[in-house]
Design a protein that fits this description.
Elements: E1 5-10, E2 16-21, E3 27-31, E4 36-40, E5 46-51, E6 56-61, E7 67-71, E8 75-82, E9 90-98, E10 106-110, E11 116-120, E12 122-124, E13 130-132, E14 136-141, E15 147-151, E16 154-156, E17 159-161, E18 163-168, E19 174-181, E20 184-189, E21 195-200, E22 205-213, E23 216-225, E24 236-242, E25 248-253, E26 257-261, E27 267-272, E28 278-283, E29 289-294, E30 299-304, H1 306-309
Binding site for a divalent metal cation: 185, 238
GO molecular function: metal ion binding
Protein name: Gluconolactonase
Length: 313
């Protein structure tokens, strides 16, 4: 790591994901293996915010203060070979099978007092069908109060269920805006909300979609591909965030850490981490500090002056 300073803020979290930096200096995370939302204070102590059950993945705060949660239904967690059961793989704490008592995949709403409600379990396809959510992955909220949702899909036996990108406007209807995508995961808006970025985990590809209006795609291009690495030299693109200068940060599986791209898709730098399951990240309100979720080791890594750490001037 060149420049910057990295410290562990918290340990012992149950597969953390989707950090949200709060105004008071705390960080909210989902604990997918713990079925809950947790607040991590600046001193590293933790407080449970809500018991969602199942597997809460991506979370985002709505303008009214509530949280929207991508409830994937849950998994059984344990130590297993990653990325495949082949020579050279490593054993990580990760999902290893279906949940013993799964929840219905859905978007949940968490009130400011911790009460849990269901936003929806279904969406409307582009041809008007009503279908159930498969395995909601990540979410971002726009200035209109709507939210973009990726449905990551699932594998059953030798079949993979293809999914896509969804949008729920202020009217509350969740509808499909793009299909298919290959295991869509992280999702984030450009600062002016004219572009939407979506990560495909399996392909390591970052898509750029032009937006003519909220939930309306007018253009598309494959913007970039994040590096491979780690065990067996594979990996994937997980969570996304975008800073006010338009730089795109991608949690990078395999290599571990974060890949930083320009708005044109150029590789600007990387910030390494010792956990190949680096699942997501966010920035502090002043954008000086990076918070990274290291899921398999259950930690939050804090990087002060992350631009210097990435070698960006």
């Amino acid at each position: 790591m060149v420049g910057g300073a990295a410290v562990i803020l918290a340990e012992g979290l149950a597969f953390p994901e989707s950090p949200i930096a709060e105004a008071d200096g705390s960080v909210l995370v989902s604990e997918i293996a713990g079925g809950c939302i947790t607040r991590v204070r600046p001193d590293g102590t933790t407080e449970k915010v809500a018991d969602t059950g199942g597997g809460p993945n991506g979370i985002a705060r709505l303008p009214d203060g509530r949280l929207v949660v991508c409830q994937n239904g849950g998994s059984t967690f344990g130590f297993g070979p990653w990325p495949y059961d082949l020579p050279g793989a490593t054993k990580l704490f990760r999902p290893i099978g279906p949940a013993a008592a799964p929840l219905t995949p859905q978007l949940q709403l968490v009130d400011t007092d911790g009460r849990i409600g269901t936003f929806t379990t279904e969406f409307t396809t582009r041809d008007g069908q009503r279908l159930p959510l498969v395995r909601p992955s990540d979410v971002c909220v726009d200035s209109a109060g709507g939210c973009y949702v990726t449905d990551g899909g699932t594998i059953r036996g030798r079949s993979r269920q293809m999914t896509g990108l969804l949008y729920a406007g202020p009217d509350g209807e969740l509808r499909e805006v793009l299909y298919p995508l290959e295991m869509p995961n992280g999702v984030a808006l450009s600062p002016d909300e004219s572009k939407l970025y979506v990560a495909e985990t399996r392909t390591r590809r970052i898509w750029e979609f032009g937006l003519g209006a909220p939930g309306v795609i007018t253009s598309a291009r494959g913007l970039a591909t994040v590096p491979s690495g780690g065990p067996l030299n594979v990996g994937g693109a997980d969570g996304l965030c975008v800073d006010s200068a338009g730089r795109i940060l991608v949690a990078t599986l395999g290599t571990g850490g974060v890949t930083v791209l320009s708005s044109d898709g150029d590789l600007l730098g990387t910030i390494g981490a010792d956990d190949p399951m680096t699942t997501n990240m966010t920035l502090s309100a002043d954008e000086s500090t990076l918070y990274m979720t290291l899921a398999s080791s259950g930690r939050i890594l804090v990087v002060a002056n992350w631009l210097a750490a990435a070698g960006i001037r």
